[in-house]
Structures are given as structure tokens and as C-alpha cells.
């Protein structure tokens, strides 16, 4: 299969997020690499995903898992070479898989040559590439992102004897986008990768690009101007390439990042994610309905990206205090699980390894409006290790089989970049891709069939959504519609069987066809349509009028 | 042939949608159509402030098919649908409102039975009944009722109020001391429009075959409290603030109030003989919040009229009273009737014996029981007059002391009641 | 002559023996009927007692005040009274049937007339009894209501109601028994009609002011009463 020319490919994609370090090690150094990843592309193709989002693989001191970039146009030696990357890219494209890479515009590592030059003296030409100040009193009141480790957004540079601005870790100084040279440099970096053939960029921390006194230094008009310029150049030179915004904001605030279809192609819908977990635990659809009702319309060419888990903590920034407390009490009873106003756990452990709940959440992910992202390992129900520092507990080696090091690497176990999960429930002996490939009813097989159905209908990726709101609040039911395709999705959020009567009079005469078994259900008539669902069960019905 | 069912299909369908709940608040919106919306808002706010994580439902029992009330009282609260997020408050869950329309004008007994049935089907852990017309219905009062049941695992919660010292004299001088002496628990407000109970008490009461009884139809709350006491359930009281003023025409007609309250109390004595015939000394119940308070705000009362009605009542009802009262009691009452108004006092010992005579006569059905209770009205007026005269200058603390003394008198004379209760009846012509 | 007398005596003796021979079987049948009647009466009494016990008739009777009336008359409770009544009615019926079997001339006719009159007697007794109960109950109801409402003359009102109901009950009883039917009906109509007419004239013409004041006082009293008495609960 080869890639089709499609400028809106990201709307129909199913994304697989992974860090090359975690996936597969080909040279037995204990660290995953591009060569190993290339060897696993068949697995990803079989799974049914259509694009891979790679976490940062650039040269870096790795003090923030690669988000502290020291060289934008190379590959970290641990992961291979640029040639390895090119080989990987070509093989991925050959299988019809698109590649999205990270682009951290907001800041660099303090080890980046740009910063080393900038700090070397106040007269250095790159001095103005970063944000400096004689005092740490500028931009008062701006919130700190990493509250668990940082006490200020200013850090003292002992070399140039002045303060520099950093919204994240102190070793990640912010670039100064008021300097046009910075913009041009960043554009050159992006062109480098686009010329190699990457299909899109996830722009990390995009909300924080510009600072202005008297503001929160987030979402400023100048930031949007920068994005628009980037987009303009991208569309001109690389049509079909995608920009994905990482902006952990309320949907109404993220809306601005789509512009009039002239800024980002896509953005994460952060607030939806914790609410899906909340709804399942509360057994009440209210959180999901509320947040989607608050989600504004976006331009036709744009798309929300939705996800269940990712490499970071499950962020609880976009929830109220009451909601945060509830999530902590239900999903992170052990305080070790909590970090930075979030929960650092994987999907399966959060759901107590309950297969039904895991399936339900994946069903929600695949049927709600937006492009879904699957975090590596969640398709087999991998566990986590909350005793590793920072967010590393959800970044453990991929579990391929029950052999040494879960088949991730032939290196000595002590040499692995992180230990494999080996407890009785989630350990690699119990949870691995090979055993699940062999089992017909495994989670992996189920995910494949789920993606198969989803990929066969554009209604899921591009359709509208209309909630039915039956009186039983434990049932979340909605219609998805795109052109002639109409799909009814009914989810039981509760741990007990439920009955629900759906008002489908508008669709009188339609025949619901259950999409996994292709079985016919009774036709919709004048009366409310009665359905019964088992615990955590969901239905996808294709509606046909014959 | 299938039996007639109590719950309508519509109500059952609504309950199906709600599912299991932690908290249920019920109310009867009959005669209170104007205040239903406000009451619903107050209860919702209480849920949001105090029980944000709990699964909740409001059950509104109305009469007939009042579409407007039904529309207001039905459905679920979705803030998103309202388009407004209440500042500083959020509710995690859908809050349901169930409207139960009962044909005709449902009595308080039918309303309570509906609420109990809903509580039982929804497996509610804590329930409260409130009155939408009550002026003291606030988010805090709702929470104060529910918390002892939900958090402290009590089974019955009676309210406590701040009252004017001349309010609630029937409760102070009859209902409270008598029920305390006989049933053993010091619940001040046995008859009120708001109380709370546990799911298991709801199940117990629902399954009793008493719903056709007139006593239950009018004032079922006392029966619930006594059922709790009889089954060794945990009871307590919760302070709710100022007592709501009775609305015009309801709660102020003394004869009607006597029929509902004293009639129910006597009926409870009749049906729960095993409970009180063997009970020992009374014990206090735990109280949440401040104890009840008395204020000394002035009130406008026509004492002379009260006395005249007592005197004329005792005189005119002599044949009836002679068949109810013990001859000695009756003779004493006749002697105090002839006293001058200024010197008249209805001693507590005599008052207690009078009530016990009435209770025993009720048991023996010497005359129609409803007539018997009505015949108490003039005597109650006499007691009221005497109380007002004696305590016109008393402080709330002094009145409280007097109340305790009266309670002691009721307990002291309990053997007298037991003796009369078990005696054979002689018919007086 | 001696022969004639002897022959007459023989004939008379023979007739007597024949009469006794004819009477004895009938007498025996009468005894059998009476004994059967006794048994049937007992059975019916117990059945009725059981049925009435299920319907809790005594409780209803207590509430209606009928039990008190019975006690005053030294009668047993309602269930027992009815059970015993059915016993006696049944047995007396069987006795009368037995007597009719004897074939005594003239007796059958009298028994037949008695049978025809019995139901009316029962109904008359029932009317009187119900009248007494209703009069007692309603007069007491009126007395209590008037006293508690502060009516100036409660006893008069109570007595008036008792009087009217008694008059009605007695009239109906006499009519049922067929005693001076026309006289009774006429007298009752005159008394009742005159009373009502008199009251109407008194209130309508002669007592406009009084009627108005009574109404005002009633309505005013209700409101004032509510406001001038302390709230009981």
C-alpha cells in the first residue's frame, strides 16, 4: 500500500503514539531505536492504525524525556541515525502509514548550541533568541506549569548573570519569538523534516510562544500570528502536511488556534479526556455531555484529536477542584500516582484491568467526533510502574512476548532504559502482543476489529454528533451523521445492566444494523426504541432505510 | 386477576431511568403549586453544595394532571442544557426530578407511601421529606436532615426549631411529653412537615399494612418515628432553624390539628401497646446542631376568648366528658371550671390524668373515637389558657424547666394509664 | 239402652284412638322438624359469627356508636347479637313449620298470618335501632362542632337534630307496622313542613339582620379564631 494524496488525511486517521525508545531495540543496548521500530511496522499495519506520532527523538540531555532538544535536525544516537530514520519513514509510507513528529518551538534544552551561544555573553548575536531579564519580577502572576518541581518561571543564569524565562523546567529556556530570526530558524528546521517526507508536526507547548506584560503569557494574538505565518508557508510549500496543536485549554480557548482554517489543522481536545474517565466512574454521562456542549464548531478542514492516555500524566488542569478531587479519590488513591495536577497511570491499571471498561472507553474513543489516538501498549492492556520518577511509569518497554525483556531487547535487563513491567497482573509474561495475537478473544484482536469497523466508515471521523439524552443518565447515546451514513452509538456507562428508551422518531422506518456482527435489529417505529445493555456494553448501529 | 398496583406506569418508568441513588428528597406539591419551583431549586442547591458526589433524586408527589407542575418537577438537571454554570458550584452527576401524579388530592399518607416506594425501589440510603410551602426550606436545612442518616447512619431524624415561646403549645404540653413518657424517646417534634429516614426504615414502613388507616392518611410522620422506635432503629434530632409559620387555614384550626395529631398518637398507642406498656424510663436522643430555642417575641392572643371556650366547652360537653373521664378527674375539672378567670389554673397532674383518661377511653372506644378526640379541644384550650397565664413573664429557660417538670409528671402517672387501659369498661348512660 | 250407650262409647273410643293414631305421627314429625331446625339454627349462628368476625363488624359498630347503644340496652356486641338473632329466627321458623304440620284447624291460618307480619316487625325494629344510632351520632357530632366553633347554643342545635331524626325514625317505624299509616304520614308531613316553613320565614323575612349577623359572625370568627389562638404545632 502506498500513501494516497489526501490533504485531509488527518481527519480520517487513527493515530498510534509511541516513543522510539520504548518500542523495540535492535542493537541490544537496552534502548529502542528506529531500526527496531521499522521491524515492528507490520504489527502496526495489522493493528489498523494509519499514522504514527513519534515523541521527540532528537539529540537531548533527556531531562524531560526528549522535550529538551539540543539539536533539531538530527537523531539521538541512542535511537539510531538519520539514515535509520529515513529508512523507517520510507517503510512506514510503503505500508500506508503517515508519520507525525514532535516540534518543540517554545523552548530548547539549555544544552542547545543556540542557548549556549546566547548565554555566553550579552553581546552574542543569539542573545536575543531567548527571553532575558535583569530581575525575576517581570510577567508577575503567570502560573507555573510543573508545580511539583519548579518554584518560578525565571531561572538565574550564572554565566551571563541574568534571568531567563522558562515556562517548563529550568533547563528548558523559552525561545524569543519576538525576534524574527527565531521564527526563520524554526521554519528552516521544519523544512528539513518536511523535505525528508514527514507528514505533520505536533507543536508542543504552542500556547506559550509569546510573552507580554500584564497577561498570563498564554494564547496571545502574537502567538496566533506566528502560527498563521507558519501555516501559510506550509500550505504553499508542503500541501497535505499537518500542524497539530498541543494546547491544554478549554475548548473555547483552543478554538482560536484553528483560526479561520488558517492556523492549526488539528488540536487536542484535552478537557474531554478526563471526563470520559469521570463519566465511567460516576456512571453518568453528564461530564461528557457538558464538555461537548461547550465545544465550539471548528472550520470544516479542522479536526479535534482525542485520546484516552498519553505519555504525560492524565492532566486534571481543565477540571474543577471538585472534579479533580473526585478523580484523585477514584483513580489515584495512592498519592504516588499523582503528579503535577494529574495522574500518572496507564489505561488498564486505571480501570483495574476490567476488560469491559477498557473496551467501553476505547469504544467511546473510536466513536466520538475527532481523530483518535492510541497510546502504545494500551492495545494490549499494558500496566504501569508508578515508582519510576516523573512520568516514566507510563513509558516502560513495549511487551512483545514472554521471553527475555518482554522481547523488547536482547540486552541485559539491567541495561534497559527502564525495567519491564513484571508483576503478576500486568507483567510481560501475562500481557504481551504475541500471546494476544494467538488468542482469538484477546484485547488486541478486539482492538483490531474495532479499528476495522471504524476505518470502514467515514461517519466516525467526519460526521456530526447529536446527543439523544434518554432519561436514563447512565446511557450515553448519540447519532453520528455524514452524508448518507448514519450511525447510532449507545453506551452503557454503568456496571450493571440497563434499559433505555431512545427517542428515534426522526428516524422512523430505519433499520438498525449492529456493526460488529452485522445483525439486524427491529426497525424504528413511532414509539421510543427500547434497548437493554449489559454492564459497560455498547452498540454501534448503522442505520439503513430500505 | 391481577391486583391493583400502587405505582403508576409513568412513575415506574421515571424510576427506571433514575436507578440506584444515595439520597432522595420527597415532597408533596399539593396546595403548594406556587412554591414548587423555589423548593426544587433550594434542594438542588443543597445537593450541589453538600452532596456533590452522591447520586440524588427529588420526588415530587402532586395531585391530578397538573401539566405545569409536572413539567417543572420532571426531568433531569443538566447544567449544560441550562447554558449556565453555577459559579463556584459544580455537580458531578445528573440530578433527577421525578414527578408522581396521583389522581385526585393525595393525602399526606398517600404522598408518603409514594415516596417510600420510590426510596425502596431506588435503594436510597438516606431520604428526607420536606414541605415546599415551608418558609424555612433552605439548602442548609435539607442537608441538616440528610447528613445524620447518610453520614452517621441514623434511621430517623426529627427536626428541631427556634420557636416563639407561645408557639407549638400542643407539642410542648401534650404530644412531646406524652410520647416521651410512653414510647421512651424524647423527640420534640413528632409531628412536623420535614423529617428524614433511612432506606431500611422506608422498607419497613412500606411493607406494613396500615395505609388505609385514617391516622396514617393525615399525619404519617409520627407513625414512622414510632415504628423506628419500636424496631430499635436509631433516632436523632437535627436543628433546622426557625419554625415555618403555618399557612392560613392549615395547622391553625385546633380541632383539625387535634384530630390529626392526638388521634394519630392515640392510634399509635393502640397499635403499639407492646412497645409502651413495657417500656422503662425515657431517654434523650442525640441532637445535631444547636438545641431548640425559644424566643420571646410578642404575640397577640385573645386569652379571654380561649378561657370562655374552655368553660363553655366543658359545660356543654358534660355528658360526653362523663363517659370519657374518670369520675374523680371529671369532678376536679368541673370544680376548676367554676373558678374566676384570673385564678384559673390547670394543674399539670390533672392535665396528665385527663389525657390518660382520654387515651384509655379511646382504647375502649367508649364513644366514637373521632368524637372523643374532638371532645379534648375545650380542655386543651383550658390548658393553653393556664399555660399562657402562668408563663406570661417566664423566660425561655424557665419555660423549659416547666416543660421538663411536665414530662416528669407524665412518666410518674404512667401506671395510672396502664391501670385504666387494662380495666373493664362500665357503660355510663 | 245399655247396648246403645256401650255402642256409642265404643264408637267414641274408636274415634279417639283413631284421632290419636292420626295425631301421633304428625306430632313426631313436628318434633323431628323442631330438632332439625335447632341444628340448622346452630350451624347458621356459627357460620354467621365467623363471617361477621372476618368483616370486623364489631369495630365498625364501635365507630358508629352502635355498640354503646347495645351496651346501654344490656345487649351483647353486634356480631353476637346478629348471630343469636339468626339462631332464634331460624329455630322459631322451624317451630312454626312444625306446628303447621300438626294440622290443627285455624292454627295454620294464624301461623301463616304471623309469618307474613314477621318481616315487617323486623324491619321496624331495625329502623328504630338505626334511628337511635344515627340520632345519637349526629347529635353528638353537631354538639362537638358547635362547642368547638364557639356557637352560642350548642345543646339546642344538638337536641334539635336528635329530635328530628327520632321523629323521622318513629314515623317510619309506625308506617312499616301499618299503624294508622295515613295519620302518621300526614302528621309527620305537617310537622316537618311547618318547621321548615317557619324557619324559612323567620330567617328570610323576620331575621334578615340576624341571619346576616350570624353569617358575619361565623365568617369573622373563623378568621379571628385562627389569628387569636397560638399556633398549636
Gap between N and C termini of chain B:
49 Å
As laid out across the biggest beta sheet of chain A, the strand order is: 1-2-3-7-8-9-10-13
Give the integer mean of the pLDDT values of chain B.
85
Largest interface: B-C, 48 and 30 residues
The share of residues in helices of chain A is 25-40%
Strand content of chain A: 15-25%
Whole-number count of domains of chain B = 2
Radius of gyration of chain B: 23 Å
Structural class of chain A: alpha/beta
CATH level-four homologous superfamily name of the domain at 179-302 in chain A: Glycosidases
The tally of beta strands of chain B, per DSSP, is: 10
CATH fold label of the domain at 179-302 in chain A? TIM Barrel
Quick check: average pLDDT of chain A? 95
User: What fraction of the residues of chain B are assigned to beta strands by DSSP?
Assistant: 5-15%
Residues in helices of chain B, as a percent range: 40-55%
CATH architecture name of the domain at 179-302 in chain A: Alpha-Beta Barrel
- Structure summary, number of beta strands of chain A: 20
Structural class of chain B: alpha/beta
SSE layout:
The complex is a heterotrimer of chains A (546), B (429) and C (233).
Chain A: H1 9-12, E1 15-18, H2 20-23, H3 34-39, H4 41-47, E2 51-54, H5 82-94, E3 98-104, H6 113-120, E4 132-133, E5 154-157, E6 162-165, H7 180-196, E7 200-204, H8 221-237, E8 242-245, H9 251-254, E9 266-268, H10 272-282, H11 286-293, E10 303-307, E11 314-315, H12 321-331, E12 342-343, H13 347-350, H14 355-367, E13 371-375, H15 433-438, H16 443-456, H17 459-462, E14 464-467, E15 475-482, E16 485-492, E17 498-502, E18 511-514, E19 529-533, E20 538-544
Parallel strand pairs in A: 1-2, 1-13, 2-3, 3-7, 7-8, 8-9, 9-10, 10-13
Antiparallel strand pairs in A: 4-6, 5-6, 11-12, 14-15, 15-16, 16-20, 17-19, 18-20
Helix pairs in contact in A: 10-11, 10-12, 14-16
Chain B: H1 9-18, E1 23-28, H2 36-50, E2 56-63, H3 67-73, E3 75-77, H4 79-82, E4 95-102, H5 108-121, E5 126-130, H6 139-150, E6 156-164, H7 169-183, E7 195-198, H8 199-206, H9 214-218, H10 220-230, E8 235-242, H11 254-271, H12 273-277, E9 287-288, E10 293-295, H13 303-316, H14 318-324, H15 327-337, H16 348-364, H17 369-390, H18 396-412, H19 414-422
Parallel strand pairs in B: 1-2, 1-5, 2-4, 6-8, 6-10, 8-9
Antiparallel strand pairs in B: 3-4, 5-7, 6-7
Chain C: H1 2-54, H2 57-64, H3 66-72, H4 78-102, H5 107-148, H6 154-177, H7 181-206, H8 208-228
